[in-house]
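Task card 7
Instruction: Convert sequence to structure tokens.
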Amino acid sequence: MRVTVAAWIGSANAGDELIFAALRRKLLARGTHVTAISTRPTVSPDDDVARVSHASLYAMTRAVRSSDALIFGGGGVLQDQTSPFNLPYHLSRMALAAAVGTPRAVIGIGAGPLHTALGREQVRLALRGPVAISARDQRSVDLLRTIGVGNVRLAADLALSLPVPQVAAEDTICACLRPWRAARGRLPVGMRPRADATAEDMVARLARGLDEAAGRLGLPVRLVAMQPGFDDLLHERVADRMVAPATLLSPPTEDVIAVIAASRVVVAMRYHAAIAAVLAGRPATLIGYDPKLADLADAMGPAAKLLAWSSGDLDRLGAATAHVTDHAGGLPAVLGGLRERERVNDSVLDDVLATAQARA
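Output:
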């Protein structure tokens, strides 16, 4: 059986690549031939996935037409925060599959923010026809149902199905930050200049918070970039303002979970840094620049502290990080519960493959 996957694949963002790695494992375990619509279609000959360019309508049409099913997701692609072009870009693949009659499933998706009525209507129309839909958190489920999308099942992020890292904790604090400003983006992500727009006072607060955490715990800090060439721009600014020892790392995607796991505690702006903390059983302070971190913080219970992206909350970063280190004991049960939820993605996948098989 042939399956095409449409998401944000091939970028430097480790979170999106971890999602695809998890979905690829599920598909290959079911004996499918996988084609990915990718921003980086040229890969090594030993890759087990065929890749077509996201910029070629002809290549995408041929892949979707020749496939038995289209898998849309996972990840936070159903949003209009990064740019007004984000939804048309991603949802065009769903429209293409509908036009050629290829069965569709939406798996492990994150929805929101959807700031505009146009954005909400685009999502509602695009998600009318899939065989099944799973969303990775309750907020996404609620949002999709509110705008009129039915048949949505609560699941969890696909990356939670990845193997638990067999890495011992080292005496260090891992921080995965990302440049951020609250204003809605106008240009597509790929067209933006490589610059860190994070406000200077917020950079200073991040540095002071990490210094305080390092002082309270007696540990050095590792600043781990999950999107090299982007996160490290902020990491350099933060490290320059810190007094505590700070090391900057930009590991390859295949190593990033292990690098995060090799710490006592995690400070995460990046959603998948928090996922890595859960997989490894490490407590975490989550900096909630985006609502998607709130659901994960709720699930982690006392092993996580959610701080808002505000000056007042960032001033509590050091104390919060020191506090959560005493509450890691419940994380194996948290992971078990989230993995049980994540298996809903398998049922959605099996449903669409069964539909495709019946049509063959």
